[in-house]
Amino acid sequence: MNSLISLFIFITFLGQARLENCSVPSKGSDNSPIACTESGIVRGAKGINFPNVVFFKGIPYAAPPVGDRRWKEPISAENWDGIKNATNWGQLCIQTVNQDTTKVIGSEDCLFLNIFTTPDSIGRKTNPKPVYIWIHGGALSFGSSSAGGWDGEAMASKGIIFVSINYRLGLLGFFTHPALREENPKLHGNYGLLDQIFAIKWVKNNIANFGGDPERITVGGQSAGAISSLLLAFSPLASNLFKAVISESSGAFYPDDPINWWMTPYTVQEAENVSLNHLESVNVKRDITVDKLRDVTVEQLYQQTWKLRRWRQILDGYVIPLSFKEIMNEGIQNKVHVLMGFNYDEFGASPSNNVTLEQYKRYAANNYRSLANEFMKLYPANDDSSASENFYKLIKILSIKIFIN
Question: What backbone phi and psi angles, to 5 degrees, belong to 27?
């Protein structure tokens, strides 16, 4: 253990030394922005919608979690020589196109982040700006930092350094298995959360070279990203990494709630049951060895799409040490400011006008479970027309129930 700690300190020292010894002009010969990171030099580009903004996209904050690094804690990205172009979004993390298809998109090599700042901030050591780190939503199974509407230019134009991050999703981010536990007893999934924490550490170590203040970092997100940001406020692994959380439509954590059940972290046993059952559903043996497990293709792992919605964070005793109630009662949460809110009609931005009676009943059953019959009595539908008419009412109620804190 002591040797591992010494190695970590040595690697951190090398990264900091590389960062401190890096000296480049803030602009290239073509006027493109240039900045130093602990892994090497990056070249960005001018903002598209805001002329006073520059961005750096697709910066690797960790080594690719591929091959024998699948389902392991993130480690530092390899250093590079020369100047790395950071003008395009990095690959999104593995996911299906939507919940109803088995078509896989993205890459396992996806641990990238994006920084939006202003030209005069790069390399400046005086009057650093506050930093906002955005964690995207998507039920922990979909989405990316490049999703439309989250590019960060507008916020950077107002004097806030904006950072958006990718993290492992679905079964690559929240899968657990006895063979993995034997390999590393402290890990029970939560690789996606570990990615988020590692990205925040990277930002804290590097953001000063982009004009950001490492002592004024706020973490936030929407939906699953909001839930993640709150979980980080409870995690000892994220202690002293940020000062505040902005939770946008996170909902609340109520065990046994017929609607919010999917927001409550699994126990280790629940997570393992879900993981093993999923392996069976895609024709992978439950007792597979760890080496063979890492050889299974993502196409095979993602054969069952609907079941991918079940992945959640895990009460593992490591990333999340205790239940939220226990943490709050003992007062051991991270000492950060928290701002919570919700988006109006969160589920109703683009409600379908063509809902069938069958879809309406299934939607009520999936979300209200044991109370589905009671809901149908209160909001009855006898045909497709009445189902479509009542669907928006269902959306509004779910929005209020799930996302208002």
Answer: -135, 145
State the distance between the two ends of the chain, measured CA to CA, in whole angstroms.
Answer: 41
Distance CA 316, CA 267 (A): 7
Q: pLDDT tens digits for the chain (405 residues)?
A: 455 445 445 445 445 545 566 666 656 557 899 999 999 999 999 999 999 999 999 999 999 999 999 999 999 999 999 999 999 999 999 998 776 677 899 999 999 999 999 999 998 889 999 999 999 998 898 899 998 677 899 999 999 999 999 999 999 999 999 999 999 999 999 999 999 999 999 999 999 999 999 999 999 998 889 889 999 999 999 999 999 999 886 555 544 444 445 567 899 999 999 999 999 999 999 999 999 999 999 999 998 765 545 788 999 999 999 988 888 888 888 999 989 776 665 554 445 567 899 988 988 888 778 999 998 898 899 998 888 888 876 666 665 555 444
Tokens 């979300």 label which residue? 367
Assign 388 to helix, strand or coil: helix
Instruction: Report DSSP letters for 264-286, one per residue.
Output: SPEEHHHHHHHHHHHHHHTT--T
Please give the model's pTM, rounded to 2 decimal places: 0.82
Cβ distance 168 to 192 under 8 Å?
yes
CATH 3.40.50.1820 for domain 2-341, yes or no, is: yes
Domain ranges of the chain: 2-341, 348-403
135 burial type by CB count under 10 A (0-12 exposed, 13-18 middle, 19+ buried): buried
| Residue of 146, 92, 79, 148 lying closest to 114 (CA atoms) | 146
Amino acid letter, 53: V
Backbone angles phi, psi at 85, to 5 degrees: -70, 125
Tally the residues of the chain: 405
- Which candidate, 30, 34, 31, 32, places its Cα nearest to that of 22? 34
Which residues, 6 or more positions from 165, have their beta carbon under 8 angstroms from its beta carbon? 61, 112, 113, 114, 133, 134, 135, 136, 145, 195, 196, 199
The dihedral sign for the CA sequence 81, 87, 88, 90:
positive
